[in-house]
Every structure is written in C-alpha cells, then in structure tokens.
Amino acid sequence: MHFDFDAAVSAPFRMQPGLRRLAAGATQLTPLSPGSRHQREKLAVLSAFWPRALVQQPGFDAGPAIAALCEHAALEHPAAWQWDGERATALKLGVAVDRASGDVQPLHGGDFGLGDEIPRCMLGLPASWRLAGLLALTFAEDLAIVDVAGTTIPWLAVALPSHWAPQDKVGRPFAEVHAPVADATLVVRAAQPLMRLAGGAERWERFVWNVSGHSRLCAHPEVVAPDRWRDTPVAAAYWRTERQTFIPVPARGQAVFTIAVDVVPLALAIDPPGRAAALHDAIATMSPAVLDYRGLVSVRDDLLAWLASRASFASQDAPARGAL
Q1: What is the pLDDT of residues 105-155, one digit of tens each?
Q2: Angle at the Cα of 20 from the Cα atoms of 18 and 23, rounded to 5 degrees
Q3: What would the 3-class secondary structure string for the chain be?
Q4: Residues near 84 by beta carbon (within 8 Å), at least 6 away in sequence
Q5: Closest to 94 (Cα-Cα) out of 75, 81, 76, 83
Q6: At residue 47, does pLDDT exceed 50?
Q7: What is the pLDDT of residues 228-267, one digit of tens each?
Q8: Helix H segments across 202-299?
Q9: Where are the extended beta strands (E) located within 190-272?
C-alpha cells in the first residue's frame, strides 16, 4: 500500500502535516483484485451501512471533481478503469455506471461469491452515489473532496475510517475537523497553506500510523469497541497505516483527498532490523494527550517493553545475519 515506514516513524514524535512531493511516476490509486480484503470490507459497508460512508454537504456539486478523478484513474490504471466522460467501466469487476443517470450495467459475472455482489451493491445506492460507489470498490483508497478556499470537506466516500465518523466531518473547516486531534497545533495552523498546496499543480503525499488492538480495516466508532485492547495482547497487536495524497482539481478550486488504509500484524511491520527501535522511540516520546487520543495509554508500558525486546533481539541477530 506504498507506506514509507522510514519516512513516517521518527523521534521525538510530533503531530505535523508531513507533506512530501510525490516521486515521478508514483501512482495515487491502488486497483483492487476482485474479492480482496479491502473490497470485501468496503462492499459490506456500502451494502448495509452506506449512509455512514457516503455523505455530502447539501447543495454541493461533486460532479466536476468526480469526473476529474475518473479521468485520473483511467490514465493511471487503464487496465482497471475506463472513462469516456459519461460512463465509467470497472474492467476487473465487470460493471459500468452511467454518470448522469446512475444506470448500472453488469458486463460479466463477478469473480467471487455469487458473482453479482458488485451490481447488487450499486443498485442499493442512490443513483447519485453509484459512480462514487464503483470507484470505492475498484480502488483501495477512500475519497474526500476538499474545497481549497474554504478549507472545508463538503463530500466524503469513506468506508474504512480510522476511529472517526464521516458524517461528523462533512462540511466542516479543516481546522475544526482536526481540533480533537491531540497536539495538532502545527496541523491546524497549516490549514490554509496545506490547502493551497493541495489545490496546486504539484502532487503531495503524507503518512499516518498507529498501533491498534483490532484487525479490521473499518474502524468507524459505531463498530469498534471503545476499549481497543480488551481482547488483544501487545504481542498480537496490529499496525494501522494511512497513505494520504491530493489530486488537484484547479478549475474548481478543489482537490480529491485519497486515503489508503492498511492493517497488518505489528510483528510483520517491524520485521526489518531497526524498525522496532525506531517505533519504540517514537511511542516513548508521545505526549500523554497523544497517547490518549491514539488509545495507547493502557498498553504503553507493555508495548514499549515488547518493542525493546524485539529491538534487542534484532541487534543481537544482526552480526549473524551479516555473516551469512
């Protein structure tokens, strides 16, 4: 999922925008294989709880930004997505959606389940959301539209949120959205410059991470227990990451914000020597407010001890690996 551990994890830990320019040739969308984990979780959300994921400010016209996103997707991944300006075709899923009417056309049977899960999900959505729904099931990324001048988020298609509810964020200014984030002064102060960069000609990415007590990609607060560590010892913890990028829509003064969530066992994420030590030092320098916001207060000491033992093991094992 293109997460850069070395760029994202540092000590002392600071909450900051952390933007960097996209490397030449880097893609911003990730096509999903039919029946993949991301697709199955998104499909479950959009089939049964779509109002939690698909929200927009009343009166907002998302059409131009969605069209720009469709064009971008077709240029980046022509084997997965086709767009002629009026109709989108998800080639791997065998489903097409008409932009204006929302008509859904199955092109062939699906490659998992009963074979009709994707078109049934599309038909269960309001016609105005079906193109966004098809984008959501074709690519791993969740999506939001940012209004650059107002720094607001008037439209979201987020099926896999990280402990926040899309319906609570829609239409609100960037600074207000991030107000609950602990130690986020630098992020809030950077709202206007960040939005100007997002809507400019260059493309940017940033990385977010946390250690989690549950394995699901969808961490909407209505489906995740408040005690995130109730049933998970730190040795069985998970590494939750986000790669976020901006696709500018300068003609509208907007940008499409992409969020690629991934969750893997923490033991796998810190497997290369040195990562356990780096993560230990980052968590050790988190403020009490950040630890509380990230749900790590109850496990901080156990987590640091486990990471220290892993770092020590990696350090002792390094010469033997080198000798081989």
Answers
A1: 999 877 777 678 999 999 999 999 999 999 999 999 999 999 988 889 999
A2: 155
A3: CCCCHHHHCCCCCCCCCCCEECCCCCCCCCECCCCCHHHHHHHHHHHHCHHHHEEECCCCCCHHHHHHHHHHHHHHCCCCEEECCCEEEECCCCEEEECCCCCEEECCCCCCCCCCHHHHHHHCCCHHHHHHHHHHHHECCEEEEEECCCCEEEEEECCCCECCCHHHHCCCEHHHHCCCCCCCHHHHHCHHHHHHHHCCCCCEEEEEEEEECCCCCCECCCCCCCCCCCCCCHHHCEEEEEEEEEEEEHHHCEEEEEEEEEEEEHHHHCCCCCHHHHHHHHHHCCCHHHHHHCCCHHHHHHHHHHHHHHHHHHHHHHHHHHHC
A4: none
A5: 81
A6: yes
A7: 798 899 999 999 999 999 999 988 999 999 999 999 999 9
A8: 266-269, 275-284, 288-293
A9: 204-212, 238-249, 254-265
The pLDDT-based confidence of 183 (bands split at 50, 70, 90) is low
How far is Cα 113 from Cα 36, in angstroms, rounded to an integer?
Answer: 12
Structure tokens at 266: 């923490």
Type of residue numbered 152: T
By CB atoms closer than 10 A (0-12, 13-18, 19+), residue 175 is middle
Q: Report the amino acid identity of residue 226.
A: P
d(CA 210, CA 294) in angstroms, rounded, equals 7
Read off the tokens for 163: 């402990």
